[in-house]
Amino acid sequence: MKRRFSLFTYPVMDMKAAEAELNRRAAKGWRLEKIWMGLLAVFVPAHVPVRYCLDWCDNVKDTERMDYKELLAQAGWEHRMELPYWNLYEAPAGTAPIQTDGELEYQRFRDKVMRRMVKGIPLTLLVVGIQLLNIIAQSGEFGAMSALMWASTLHMMLALLLLLPLWGLGGLAWLGRMALRLHQWRQAAREDGPTPVPGRWSGLAAALLTLAGWLSVVLVCAAAVWDMTTNCVPTLPFAGVFLLCAGILFARSLWEQHQTKFVRRMASLCLATALCGGAGGMVFFRQAEATLLEPPLSDLHLLPGVTEVWTMWEERSHAATSLLSCTDWDELEPDGETGFGIHETVLGVRMDAPVRGTAWRARWPWMAEWAASLQRGGMEPVEGYPGVWRRETRKGELWLLRRDTLVLRVKNDLEPLDEDWLADMLAQMEEEGR
Amino acid sequence: MARKKLETLTEQMFYVLLSLRRERHGYGIMQAITEMTGGRVSVGAGTLYALLERFEKDGLIRFTRTEENRKYYQMTEAGEQALEAEYQRIRQQAADWERIMKEEKS
Questions:
Q1: CA neighbours closer than 13 Å in the CB half-sphere of residue B15
Q2: Is residue B86 situated within a structural domain?
Q3: Residue in A with minimal Cα distance to B52
Q4: Residue B50's domain spans which residues?
């Protein structure tokens, strides 16, 4: 049987665009067969012409809902399925629409949309706020470095670091579109005109962005599964956290009764993450561990003549994921005396380390370039040396070197390092990169 | 501008109340309105449900019985008064229109 497909990830405020797409297909002789996973509408040839109507899901008692559906059924509207925000009805072509009063329709739209805006605004502000704090922190000496060290520890942190700015922008776009729709519906209700229907391409663009939003959440969950499989996090407790989230969300969907498709979808995602992560971590961890990147520059010494290095916990601290790995170390002067209080720490953070090296190895050159770009703020490129940046700090200098998939950050509070040192570092990086 | 609490009735509200001078069920109201107006006015099932809920809450109609899964309603005295008031308002509007048209022609 022939089939046609339409993307059906319309956001809540584009109800009319979703309805228009269904009726566009219906006008061409197609009938909705199903909506696959809430993402894709599947159409089959219609034997009789039909039309579609989307109506809001109301959080009402079951008896009221039955009365409502009974009245709609008597008017010719068959309830086909429940979607995250709407109920989908089908009727023979020519049946009067379910809603015929513009003002009442606007009031319902306003109530539903405002409720979501009340939830959406703080969430968007939180994401944007975190990102702004992140940007401010990155302008400091340790900001970007700390973020990248976290990203070298967990795939999930790397995914969040990459996605947070996009989520912030997406949230702002979503709020803006919702405010626009509210304004348009209010105008239509005042002028007693038809409810506004977004243009086909505008609706499709919003659906694509919504799909991208869902895929990004799936990506974060997939990163969490990979963390458990590679044992970057302890598998069972981490899977337990996701299982707990799934349980809370499923329980919520039971006592909220309606408007639960979204909550149930999130709960299913948490459950899938817990199960896949748990299974992966117990069965495939050896194979998965082999994908972890080798920590970079493990034998590199920054100070001439140094043969020993020191960190708080081990010779060098390493972190590795399948996409980014990191090596972090301090170096003492050859006589072992620094006069800088290297053993002083505050809450486990090393203070006053005179020379500190942090290196990253990325899976791909573009990722290394991204890691370097996060840290280049305020630094000047060094003439004659592409991929090298430097700036003066309060106590000394800061270097950033990049070769292929390797990035090296050097903080130096001793005598300024010279070109011979730079050439030596670059040569070692190039040797390691081969 | 949203109407205040039923000071005036929309066309759909008017015909819903008018049809409930006799006891009817929901779908019967829709059919009656289509018949009364020759198809000019139609009330969607969803709109009708919201209007019946609102009218019942405001005391303009009352629920009378349920039969074969159909809920029946009928207009109350308050509903008759509201309908009468709306009818007088429409009549006055029509009379004003006729007067102005006559003045312009003469």
A1: 22
A2: yes
A3: A68
A4: 11-105
